[in-house]
């Protein structure tokens, strides 16, 4: 009998770091066992990751959705997301990885459109296919990153920071996101509140489940938090909270052998039956129905 999977492993950046503990850019083959030992194993990263699959075929599962991938695809994985690469062919490409402190992606005033458009969005992930011309631009930036990391000339960290930001701007343009920063200070203030709210959800979604809970931590009224959330994301604050809980439940259902009861307790529900009703209300599937359906579906994303 196969061993029960009851947890999702966490990979830390030092496991990949070769020259700099805060920033990695490398060909996938050069990562060696640090990368290939993770293939086929669902896991999380505690850092931001960009994969560029240049050649080869693979299945890439992000949270509970599996994508069929061929070539020239960028994947953006935020810390805490569960993903699993399953290669059916030899793959070639690059990995760019960095800590939040390196780029401060959570600072809404610094990279307003980048964070919401690539790493933080309603789909919780970004997948971008490159055409031949876009491939040349991305390749040039990646090679400059690798050169800076290898030669470590004076102020190379500043150069890497600029190259990473340029890479993200290019990717945002390709994806069609607007990366312009609004000069309106009121809008910037609301954006800052919204990002703090999203960060608080990441920290506390297993213990805090209501809009009032988060509004109190932000020192604003629940109705204002809902208005800001609707304005900036199109959905209410309550929906963001529920979506995050449901996403984590789906991650556990897809990637582990935990029962719905065990997952309920992990997510802070005292009553497993209430958790099952909650899950079905907002997904139209029971936990067991979701587990069965998600493990047999693949989303095509071929070139």
From TrEMBL:
Instruction: Give TM regions.
Output: none
The residue ranges of the HTH araC/xylS-type domain are 195-293
Q: Where is the signal peptide?
A: none
- Cross-referenced Gene3D superfamilies, in alphabetical order? Homeodomain-like, Jelly Rolls
Q: Which InterPro entries match?
A: AraC-bd (IPR003313), Homeodomain-like_sf (IPR009057), HTH-like (IPR037923), HTH_AraC (IPR018060), RmlC-like_jellyroll (IPR014710), Tscrpt_reg_AraC-type_HTH (IPR020449)
UniProt KW keywords: DNA-binding, Transcription, Transcription regulation
Q: Which Pfam families match?
A: AraC_binding (PF02311), HTH_18 (PF12833)
Whether Transcription counts among this entry's keywords is yes
Q: Name one GO molecular function term.
A: sequence-specific DNA binding
Name of the featured protein:
AraC-type DNA-binding protein
């Amino acid at each position: 009998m196969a061993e029960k999977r009851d947890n999702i492993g966490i990979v830390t950046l030092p496991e990949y770091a070769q020259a700099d503990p805060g920033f990695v850019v490398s060909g996938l083959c050069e990562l060696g066992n640090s990368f290939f030992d993770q293939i086929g194993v669902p896991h999380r990263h505690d850092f931001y990751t960009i994969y560029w699959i240049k050649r080869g075929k693979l299945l890439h599962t992000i949270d509970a959705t599996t994508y069929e991938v061929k070539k020239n695809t960028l994947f953006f994985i935020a810390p805490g997301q569960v993903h699993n690469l399953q290669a059916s062919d030899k793959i070639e490409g690059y990995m760019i990885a960095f800590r939040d402190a390196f780029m401060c992606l959570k600072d809404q005033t610094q990279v307003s459109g980048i964070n919401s458009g690539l790493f933080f969005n309603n789909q919780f992930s970004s997948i971008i296919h490159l055409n031949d011309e876009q491939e040349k631009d991305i390749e040039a930036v990646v090679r400059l990153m690798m050169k800076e990391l290898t030669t470590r000339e004076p102020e190379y960290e500043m150069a890497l920071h600029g190259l990473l930001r340029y890479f993200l701007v290019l990717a945002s343009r390709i994806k069609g996101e607007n990366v312009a920063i609004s000069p309106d200070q009121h809008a910037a203030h609301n954006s800052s509140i919204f990002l703090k709210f999203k960060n608080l959800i990441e920290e506390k979604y297993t213990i805090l489940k209501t809009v009032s809970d988060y509004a109190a931590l932000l020192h604003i009224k629940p109705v204002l938090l809902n208005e800001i959330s609707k304005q900036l994301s199109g959905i209410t604050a309550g929906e963001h909270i529920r979506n995050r809980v449901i996403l984590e439940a789906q991650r556990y259902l897809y990637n582990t052998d935990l029962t719905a009861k065990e997952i309920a307790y992990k997510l802070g529900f005292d009553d497993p039956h209430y958790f099952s009703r909650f899950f079905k209300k907002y997904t139209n599937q029971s936990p067991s129905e979701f587990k069965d359906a998600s493990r047999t579906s693949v989303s095509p994303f071929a070139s």
